[in-house]
Amino acid sequence: MSFVPQLLAEFPEDGTTMKRPDFSAPTSLLELKHEYSKSPEGTMLIAGGQSLLPALFKGRSMPDKLIDIGRVAELRRLEFGSGNVFLGAGLTFTQILASKGATVLPGLVAALGYVGNCTIRNRATVGGSLAWADPRAELSLLLLVLDAVVVTERREFALADLYGEAGQNNLAPGEIIVGVRVNGCDAKKCEFLELMPRASAGRAVIGVAVCCDQLGSLRIAVSGLWKPQICASVVGCDLGAESLAESWLTDHCEAAAKLADIAFGWAYRRRAAAVLMTRAIESVRR
Ligand SMILES: Cc1cc2nc3c(=O)[nH]c(=O)nc-3n(C[C@H](O)[C@H](O)[C@H](O)COP(=O)(O)OP(=O)(O)OC[C@H]3O[C@@H](n4cnc5c(N)ncnc54)[C@H](O)[C@@H]3O)c2cc1C
Q1: Which one of 33, 45, 209, 217 is most buried, by most CB atoms within 10 A?
Q2: Dist CA 278 CA 40 (whole Å)
Q3: Which of 46, 168, 176 to mutate to test the pocket of ligand 1 (most atoms within 8 A of CB)?
Q4: Which fold would CATH assign to domain 4-68?
Q5: In the chain, which residues fall in CATH 3.30.465.10?
Q6: What is the pLDDT, as a whole number, of residue 75?
Q7: 221 lines ligand 1 (CB under 6 A)
Q8: 111 lines ligand 1 (CB under 6 A)
């Protein structure tokens, strides 16, 4: 049973600007593709609804039609094996955390553990999180540092290429995320750390993911300093953790618009990022 029709019954229609969208809930990927292709521009997929439903109710998204992907079994594929991991787009964070293989993807348990609260994790999905392209999202920060590949029903591409402007994804109209794949997990160590304000619903101020391969090369990704998340490999891996963190931050400081707000200014964020990054580098080098 889909949870969406019941919620749509509460939809604040005003007969003019706010019109209750049509709804369908296909049960296979084939049926989903067919439904979506009928009118890709005016249709939106709905997965956990945790981001989309508030936007709909506030009138920020106004699709003519919603397609619930929750009944499509092909989108819930979960494979942990021979060093590779595949996470189906329709899997919720709770389903992933409860699976036996969750620890195979380095950093996954830590990253998802930071997301919202258990109610959010029970609904939020892999595909919804990636497609919503929130620069604070833990899953995408982790998957960026692990060099993940997005699989849609028509192509495969590096996760870094999914993101355009902050809050936008580069999916084509009608394109469906089927899942995400990470190769060579057994050869990687990863640490995920966050600074979280006490009064938030789990939204991070700063997120840091650091990945180390068997040769000792590092990749670092940070959220909360600039509008988009930034991920880059590191040169000069022979430096100590603190110097490395400092030089990475200096190299990327001019990269994009700096984030700051009344509670967490730029200098505070940068210092917090340096501390978390140092700890994460020390942890993956141990
Ligand atoms: C109180 C609160 C706290 C939260 N805290 C956090 C947090 O700490 N960290 C965090 O990362 N997130 C947080 N979230 C966001 C939550 O994780 C989001 O719900 C999630 O990121 C979106 O997943 P969803 O399955 O709910 O997607 P939906 O809301 O259903 O959809 C989001 C978007 O993705 C599109 N979409 C969904 N599936 C697909 C697909 N397979 N292919 C293509 N497009 C698709 C939809 O069309 C829509 O545009 C929070 C949300 C709330 C309400």
Answers
A1: 209
A2: 45
A3: 46
A4: 3.30.43
A5: 73-185
A6: 98
A7: no
A8: no
Handedness of CA 129, 130, 132, 135 (dihedral sign): positive
Q: Whose CA is closest to 237, among 253, 254, 213?
A: 213
- In this predicted structure, what is the pLDDT of residue 151? 98
Spacing of C-alpha 204 from chain mean position: 13
pLDDT for the residue 261: 85
What is the pLDDT, as a whole number, of residue 16?
62
What is the rounded distance in angstroms from the CA atom of residue 267 to the CA atom of residue 256? 15
Residue 20 to residue 18: CA distance in whole angstroms = 7
According to the CATH classification, is domain 73-185 in 3.30.465.10?
Answer: yes
What residue owns the CA closest to ligand 1's atom 28? 49
| Residue 152 Cα: closest atom of ligand 1 | 42
DSSP state of 59: T
Interval between CA 49 and ligand 1 midpoint (Å):
6
* Per-residue model confidence (pLDDT) at position 165: 67
Tokens in use for 103? 């620890």
Report the CATH fold assignment for 187-285: Enolase-like; domain 1 (3.30.390)
User: Could you tell me the distance, in angstroms and rounded to a whole number, from the CA of residue 117 to the centre of ligand 1?
Assistant: 13
Q: Give the total residue count for the chain.
A: 286
Domain limits, CATH 3.30.390.50, in the chain? 187-285
In the reported structure, the alpha carbon of residue 278 is separated from the centroid of ligand 1 by a whole-number distance in angstroms of 30
pLDDT mean by block of 10 residues, the chain; 286 residues: 75 71 94 94 95 89 93 95 92 95 91 93 97 93 96 97 83 97 91 85 88 92 89 84 93 78 89 97 93
The structure's pTM equals 0.94
Closest of 224, 220, 230 to residue 206, by C-alpha: 224
Q: Tell me the β-bridge partners of 211.
A: 190, 219
DSSP state of 187: G
